[in-house]
């Protein structure tokens, strides 16, 4: 018996009703206009909204995180995810704030690794017309740490904690590439990789795709007369790229079907080496 007339500049429509009580009418497919929020803002009234947190680990050599605070809008979130994944970033899933944030208020992101971390910008003013994010840079990250988001309104200098989360070492490090003694798989099995890896072409191609090899380095490797000398050159460039280069090579080796048995054999030998007892001669 009921319908809701919606008057708009684009035309008038009738909205279907799913439920009617003595004081409320519930719409079946509600649509909302941002004009109400704009009017409240112009009048100086607070406009609150919930935000999701999207955390991405970038491909940079040292630990660099992009921490986004985005509205509950699937299109905006898809845009952010597409942009980051196209640059090789990996998402670190974490719970979002369960408290609302007030638009145009200042928010601050801090960490308990203050002496080792650089966070930019120092503060953000939340806006709905742009994507809000912080960059967290930690040069020597090797342990768990906590991120904390605080808010501060103009009339109140005291900060309120809105959200906290723990970033664990396993979230940002590929643990399977490092043994219990902290040595990387590529370093431990360098000789075996040089002598036993034969298909260097696909490795060169994928290293170049991931930015580890430049076109000039690619040609230098290709000009080597034997697969052993090619692997030596590959390992030289990979090592110069730091931990990131070694991790990328390790993932390439694991992904090649004809190398699965070799990688499994080397991993087993590394595990046996790590648990073997130490013998001291006096």
TrEMBL record:
Pfam families: CARD (PF00619), FIIND (PF13553), UPA-FIIND (PF23679). GO terms for biological process: inflammatory response; innate immune response; regulation of apoptotic process. Its main location: cytoplasm. Residues 178-254 form the CARD domain. It comes from the Eukaryota. InterPro entries: CARD, DEATH-like_dom_sf, FIIND_dom, NLRP_Inflammasome. Residues 1-181 form the FIIND domain. GO terms for cellular component: cytosol. It is found in: Cytoplasm, Cytosol. The keyword Cytoplasm applies. Keywords: Cytoplasm, Immunity, Inflammatory response, Innate immunity. Coiled coil: none annotated. This is NACHT, LRR and PYD domains-containing protein 1. It comes from Channa argus (Northern snakehead). The lineage of its organism: Eukaryota, Metazoa, Chordata, Craniata, Vertebrata.
